[in-house]
């Protein structure tokens, strides 16, 4: 690992704005302390002076990618199709006819529509696919109980789905562009079949703070009991019905809580609160802070795109199954096993996945770069696409120049 003194000073990085009406203000980050060693230098960048609209010149690692205004006039047509996977129907969207293949992977409770501001822009230079993971969006939602003691909704399942999608639909190697838990899916897929993934970009990857390994030993029995309570009693159904409303979704996305440092699921895990008559699950999003720092991006279209698939038959069982899923891989377990380049970008106003903890991932050899996105929350691709889209273009261009992708049929 590079020590702090060897990192490129932020003041010497060029993140200039192509507009005479705007000024660039440099952001000075807090001092960073690193331990361990790296086989090559790392850089932590903060994008500064960038606005949520207009033309941006993104300059980093000697690459320059121009991202123009997000005008819909020249956007390509995004198409929606269904794919049969292991007998299940999976929805995906695609756009673009040339260039490297990108597969966009959503987070918990979201779906491929969460990339609606990215697909048509990225498709100008890439073949872009966005998939609904099984159990989410408009993909099938098999009841987890039908699998008995075998867990179905796991990162291994979703990783297998992603790799098979690349083989059967994309029919090419691909870059995985991931948000939140989608990042764990992308890493798991890259570990399981390394010849498929050309690179992984992680946007505010889930830290999985509720993983059983991250809980004190004396609290683990309680966690298991509470998970059983959610799965097997009316409490889980009640909680889901309380959050599956437009008001609750909007609260989670944009209403700032009074106690910023308290994580939203602390309230849910508190058995006293869950038995308290004054406990209101619909306000749980207010406890966790704002998912979107820029609340003007929380539109009715966004709320409905998240809510409507959650009202589909079977959605409640998938929801409860995942919030009770405290096993499986952790990002810090997968990153050392990844053979392809990884770029991490982090919205610094994320109330759920703190930047201070995320920075630790910069220590892994597979991580070539860590970029801080100022004044952005948990879903940078939707809240600040004008920052994310050029970052994706730069990352893909850098790793496409050295070697062209081969069809997967050629790799067998």
UniProtKB/TrEMBL annotation:
Residues 100-385 form the AB hydrolase-1 domain. It comes from the Eukaryota. Residues 269-288 are annotated as: Disordered. This is AB hydrolase-1 domain-containing protein.
